[in-house]
Specification:
- The chain is of the alpha+beta class and about 550 residues long.
- The chain has three domains: about 190 residues, Immunoglobulin-like, CATH 2.60.40.680; about 130 residues, no CATH class; about 180 residues, no CATH class.
- The protein is about 25% helix and about 25% strand.
- The chain is built from twelve helices and 22 strands.
- The strands form four sheets. Strands 1, 3, 5, 7, 8, 9, 11, 12 and 14 form a nine-stranded mixed sheet that branches. Strands 6-10-4-2-13 form a five-stranded mixed sheet.
- The longest helix is centred in the middle third of the chain and has 20 residues.
- About 35% of the residues are buried.
- The N terminus is likely disordered.
- Keywords: Signal.
């Protein structure tokens, strides 16, 4: 990658944005950013984006600006690109040369890509422009150039409009921000401390627009050169928590109404919000300004819906895959039924829908009503699958591997720590087995232990007491059971047959009304459970959690 970057740097031929750079596909390099209410001494950030490129592997851009009125403070590549700190600032001419190379070699088509963020400091009160003066873009495919040599394929691209900035005077005396020549891969930043820092944090709290608040906070943190005081830390942390909370809420546009409503999250918004959130979290961590609220922050989107005659228990969020043309289920969506909305963790831009899913199995019509509904609901939530496209096999025994996968999907346990993948270490669980990852997750969380001989016995039928222990261990792990609750005085007639390691879990499950026995007040702990009864058990558990 570094070699490829050097190849780009060695090129002296640029494509001028104003001359002969037109593409049928309207591929474009653009500038965007909030430049309202900029005063002398303020910083503001501009984002560089690539739009409508099939395969933008690398790009060179030259930004032109008024060096008397603006100074480049920071240059940061977007999440999918790298600048290798090879940018060059010519403060005499007022030019920023920025080469960017995509981190992944394979084509990665996107409608919009976030290339870089450039932070400027306002030095004089005047009207100025920042423009993309020159642009060169290449794809990852190789082609023969005019000289007959093998070279990376040149891409045609248009250039977006310049950004006009009106810089106003400060209301009060501001720190001296003049000076600084700027050099390749570096920037000069002033120290911001004392009342200025605390006032700046208060200003962040007043800002209603989350992106503007984030940019202001980012400017404050970028200005820090020494350990802030306790008072400054408190003010910054308060501003940071409010900013991160606001920035975590992604904008969602809604098209249509009722069951046909489509929710859209734009790629540009996702790129901007994610870039701001990650850079702020990193800057806060540098100065040890951490809190659980900040550390656990992630981009979320709220989607409100109208029921429109659908079964609320069978609704789910689906994302449209542009490649396959299929609406894919989004696991982990938090359903707030009372408020009629879903909250999802945003990983992808694009179109979303709230749909009711059903699969008419031919062999469940004759089972008891509670089980039939449980099967329908768990199928709609993609927790259980049929044994074929048309059969559920309700009386079939459930294996330990199958129940492990059901409980992982029901509680989304595999989404708790996707960064550190778990590994199955049982002698009879192969790494390639379809259930290996789910069993590994349960072991990692301390929900299962296996047998003393180092096996898990995935193909054995899960007994009723094993099923209850696994489920209750999972609920305890998630802190979803009340440990101080009063134990039920009722006992099963065959309580003596329950294994010692399972008694507490079975009693707790009975207290929570998850199990009620199999006739004559018997629990039948060693009896295997079937697919219909297991569906009822999991559905009761989910109702308790709701």
């Amino acid at each position: 990658m570094l070699a490829l970057c050097l190849i780009l740097l060695s090129s002296t031929v640029f494509t001028y944005g104003s001359a002969g750079v037109r593409a049928a596909e309207s591929s474009k390099i653009t500038l965007s950013g909030n430049v309202s209410n900029v005063r002398v001494g303020d910083t503001f950030q501009l984002q560089i984006h690539g739009e409508q490129f099939e395969d933008l592997f690398a790009v060179e851009v030259v930004l032109a600006y008024d060096a008397q009125a603006l100074r480049v403070e920071e240059v940061k590549a977007g999440a999918g690109y790298d600048a290798y700190d090879a940018y060059q600032i010519d403060a005499t001419k007022g030019e920023l040369y920025l080469p960017l190379v995509r981190k992944q070699l394979q084509p990665n088509p996107q409608a919009t890509v976030h290339l870089a963020d450039v932070t400027f400091r306002a030095l004089q009160d005047k009207g100025v422009e920042v423009e993309l003066q020159r642009v060169k873009a290449v794809g990852s495919a190789w082609a023969t150039n005019e000289q007959g040599y093998k070279d990376m394929k040149r891409l045609t691209s248009e250039v977006g409009d310049a950004i006009a900035v009106q810089i106003e005077k400060q209301d009060s005396k501001a720190p001296d921000y003049s000076g600084g020549s700027g050099q390749a891969g570096s920037s000069s930043q002033p120290v911001v401390s004392g009342p200025t820092m605390i006032d700046g944090a208060k200003d962040v709290l007043k800002e209603k627009d989350p992106t503007k608040a984030a940019e202001k906070l980012q400017a404050l943190l970028s200005g820090l050169k020494e350990e802030p005081t306790a008072a400054e830390k408190q003010a910054l942390l308060q501003a940071a928590e409010a900013t991160v909370t606001g920035l975590s809420q992604m904008p969602v546009s809604k098209e249509g109404t009722g069951a046909d409503a489509v929710y859209v999250i734009s790629a540009a918004d996702l790129s901007q919000y994610d870039s701001l959130l990650q850079s702020i979290i990193a800057a806060l961590h540098k100065w040890k300004l951490d809190s659980p609220q900040i550390a656990q922050a992630q981009l979320q989107a709220v989607m409100e819906y109208t029921l429109a005659g659908r079964d609320v228990n069978k609704l789910g969020v689906y994302h449209y895959d542009e490649t396959t043309g299929i609406w894919e289920y989004v696991r982990g969506a938090m359903h707030q039924t009372d408020a009629a909305k879903f909250v999802i963790s945003v990983k992808q831009a694009g179109k979303y829908r709230i749909q009711e899913y059903s699969k008419p199995y031919k062999d469940i019509a004759g089972i008891y009503a509670e089980a039939k509904y449980a099967v329908d609901v768990l199928t709609a939530r993609h927790i259980v699958n049929g044994t074929s496209d048309i059969l559920f096999s309700p009386s079939k025994q459930v294996t330990r591997a199958e129940f492990s996968s059901m409980i992982v999907r029901a509680l989304n346990l595999d989404l708790l720590d996707a960064v550190n993948p778990a590994e199955a270490t049982y002698s009879d669980v192969g790494a390639e087995a379809w259930y290996a990852e789910d069993i590994a997750v349960l072991r990692k969380l301390g929900i299962i232990n296996g047998f003393s001989d180092g096996t898990f016995r995935p193909n054995d039928a899960v007994t009723r007491e094993q099923m209850v222990v696994i489920a209750m261990n999972a609920l305890r792990n998630l802190e979803l059971t009340a440990d101080n609750s009063v134990a039920s005085t009722e006992t099963f007639a065959d309580a003596g047959a329950i294994s010692g390691w399972a008694k507490d879990s079975v009693n707790k499950a009975r207290e929570m009304k998850l199990v009620s026995g199999i006739g004559q007040n018997r629990f039948m702990p060693k009896q295997p459970t079937n697919r219909a009864d297991t569906a009822v058990f999991i559905w009761k558990m989910l109702q308790q959690l709701n």
